[in-house]
Amino acid sequence: MNIFLIGPMGAGKSTIGKLLAKTFGRDFVDSDREIERRTGVTIPMIFEYEGEAGFRRREAEMLAQLSARDEIVLATGGGAVILPENRALLRRRGFVAYLKCSIEKQLERTQRDSHRPLLNTADPRQRLEDLFHEREPLYTEIADVTVDTGLLSGQAAVRSIAKAYQNACSGRGDT
Fold it and tell me: What domains sit in the chain, N to C, each tagged with a CATH number?
């Protein structure tokens, strides 16, 4: 069963994903990096030329392709849960771990990152709060486990996810 990581920007999906992949001996894939690799342009450039709707279309196509693979750890973009078809796909095709963290921790982790087009605003804190209120119900709707990465170390978060994953697999008969 695949492991899909969802959550807001700055929650640690890529960092935790790499650690989980190593723990389980699986490939790690970051959907945003894969979009950039395949298109040859950055996410901010996609946003600039195609808008958020164009990016979300590309993201949905990428999630459909990547989630069809076997035994991967996939870090999704923060907004991957916006489209109902993406949420259904993730729930159906794997184990979903919601990486949660505070707005303060997100700001701390993203403040020097110019690769976040949704934060190119006069008030990044307000933008993060708005995104949290919009997306939090969607994250919790599909999560098999929720881990607060603002409170736990990377290794502790991995242990928590791994335990929940193994419990879910034993319940489904998977390994």
Answer: 2-172 (3.40.50.300)
